[in-house]
Amino acid sequence: MISDLNKEQESISNSNVDWGKHYDHFEIEMREMYKTISEPQNKSHFEMLKQNAKQYLKADKVFCEIGFGAGLTLRYASKYFKKVYGLDISKRNVEYSREEFTKENIDNIELYFSDLMKFDKDFESKFDVISFIHGLEHFSKDDYKIILQNLKKYIKPGGIFTGALPFKNDYNFRMCPHCDKIFEIDGHVSSHDIFSLRKLFEENGFEVIYINDFNIHYAMTEGTLLQKIHRVLLYKLFKRKFFTQLEYIAKPI
Predict the structure, then answer these.
(1) Phi and psi of 192, rounded to 5°?
(2) What is the pLDDT of residue 183?
(3) Fewest beta carbons within 10 Å, which of 29, 49, 62, 146?
């Protein structure tokens, strides 16, 4: 049964769902909850960038985040880059986040509505760094051919694509009580480990610069000494997913 559901899920395309409508709700009405959930994901990823892509964290570079959520990574990036852009499929989130940044006196961030499945010529060769945190798992194999080609066109020569996503994502299926259809509660339609993600990038014209499923540097900076030891032992001995996510840096060929 689960195997059949997984196969069915993999055939679903992101284009079949009005994600703008969904995220108009989630990113605003449930903002604080999702901010709490995404904070360690965003922090870990940006620490990874600081460790492995220092040459890109400079004021003469242009940073962009796709699907920026509550804007945590945009805030981190605003301290390193002269210009930071955020692209999001939720128009409400774009408007709400603009108001937040204005109140916080952050003036080097520009936000725009954008659907990654649709190429936008305004963003062609515009960004040195594009970040996409916990987003790839929302796209199917057929969708990847579209979004990765669009991303390649948005990245300046010599630029990079970076991000994070769940490691060996577990699907969480539910049945709708109204229509009796099966759906994945978080809208996830794909799952990756290091090998499948590397293959995905290579098949779509990217060179993998860095990829890992456990940010030990970040894990060892959070919490008490006992928590750090416990966290690492769980991962090393049992592959438990505490503080684990796939984090990557790839470069268009």
Answers:
(1) -140, 150
(2) 74
(3) 29
**In the predicted model, is pLDDT for residue 86 greater than 70?**
yes
Q: Which runs of consecutive H residues, i.e. helices, occur in 79-158?
A: 91-103, 141-154
Interatomic CA distance for residues 59 and 102, integer angstroms: 21
Domain of 187? 2-216+246-252
Residues 235-252 have pLDDT tens digits of 888 776 666 899 999 999
- Do the bridges between strand 246-252 and strand 155-165 make them parallel or antiparallel, or are there none, so unpaired? antiparallel
183-204 tens-digit pLDDT: 777 788 899 999 999 999 999 9
Please write the tens of the pLDDT for every residue from 201-232: 999 999 999 999 988 888 888 888 998 888 88
Domain presence at residue 227: no
* Domain count along the chain: 1
Q: What's the CA gap between 92 and 24, in Å, rounded?
A: 5
CB within 8 Å of 227: residues ≥ 6 apart: none
Residue 116's CATH number: 3.40.50.150
CA 84 to chain centroid: 16
Q: How far is CA 136 from the centre of its chain?
A: 6
pLDDT in tens, 17-43: 677 787 888 888 889 988 998 999 999
* Helix ranges restricted to H, 105-186: 141-154
